[in-house]
Amino acid sequence: MATTIDGAPAPVIEAPRSPRRRPTSSKARTNFELYAWLFMRVSGILLVFLVLGHLFIMNILDGGVQRIGFGFVAGRWASPFWRTWDLLMLVLAELHGTNGLRTVINDYAERPQTRFYLKMLLYVSTSLVVTLGALVIFTFDPNIS
């Protein structure tokens, strides 16, 4: 082992490309962060096509936003294709944003208790928005009396 001038052992500097040693713990390791990272990439690509397709169809092919009203939505949601499109856009956008905000909370919330409560608030609000949005899409009835 190398020593410094005063006889103390020299610090060991690992090679730049050596594998990183992770601390071992009794907890089982998961790949959640890897899957979250992959989800962000896949959902981002899908959202680009869904949202740009939505904007193109609504604003160019269907005559612009001045045409959008209750009757327009009722006619559009008569088709399962458009209900599925809108539901997929809602769920992917909400989960994509939730995952991004979860990462921000993990990065900036210093206290574990603060991090826990912020993430619980995030998950509850996400569940509420997705549930209410899906409820509207699935139970929409144009024949309101």
TrEMBL record:
A molecular function GO annotation: metal ion binding
Keyword Transmembrane: yes
Localization (cell): Membrane
A cellular-component GO term for this protein: membrane
Transmembrane region(s): 34-57, 120-140
Domain of life (superkingdom): Bacteria
Region of interest called Disordered, as start-end residue ranges on this chain: 1-25
Biological source species: Candidatus Protofrankia californiensis
Main location class: membrane
Keyword entries, A-Z: Heme, Iron, Membrane, Metal-binding, Transmembrane, Transmembrane helix
Protein name: Succinate dehydrogenase hydrophobic membrane anchor protein
Alphabetized InterPro entries for the sequence: SQR/QFR_C/D, SuccDH_FuR_B_TM-su
